[in-house]
Amino acid sequence: MIAVALAGGLGAVCRAGLDGLVRRRHPEFPWGTFAVNVLGCFLLGAATSAFSAMDPRALRMVTTGFFGGFTTFSTAMLDAVELARAGRRLASAGLVLGTAGSSLLAFLGGTAFASIF
């Protein structure tokens, strides 16, 4: 469990870095949250496919730990609510649907990518 917590902390630090970098460049929409979720799903798909034979405890450290800390569904929903409250309902709906659809496609793309190797 300590390894999961440490990996989760590392994932959260990576998320904060990428999110901050993207938000500084594009403050008009929560592209940072979108980016970490889509990238995280791609990498999670690749990791679970590539490392499926890994020790289950090590795999949990990577999946639940690192990627659990890196990706952030709850922040995406908070961003969507804030957009809706600001009267940007179309942007809010776009964020919810775009995050879900893009993240699913990214996960599938990651598994396909890993199967090549």
What does this structure look like?
With 117 residues, the protein is mainly alpha-helical. The protein has one domain (2-116). The protein has helices spanning 2-25, 31-50, 56-70, 73-85, 89-116. The chain is globular and about 50 Å long. Belongs to the fluoride channel Fluc/FEX (TC 1.A.43) family. Keywords: Cell membrane, Ion channel, Ion transport, Membrane, Metal-binding, Sodium, Transmembrane, Transmembrane helix, Transport. Its main location: membrane. It is a multi-pass membrane protein.
Mean pLDDT: 96
Question: What structural class do helix, strand and pairing data support?
Answer: mainly alpha
The Cα radius of gyration reads 15 Å
Strand content: under 5%
Helix content class:
over 70%
| Order of H and E elements | HHHHH
Counting DSSP E segments of at least 2 residues, the number of strands comes to 0
- Characterize the largest beta sheet: strand count, sense, and whether it forms a barrel: none
Cα-to-Cα separation, first versus last residue:
30 Å
Number of helices: 5
Total number of domains? 1
Low-confidence spans:
none
- Shape annotation: globular
Write down the oligomeric state: single chain
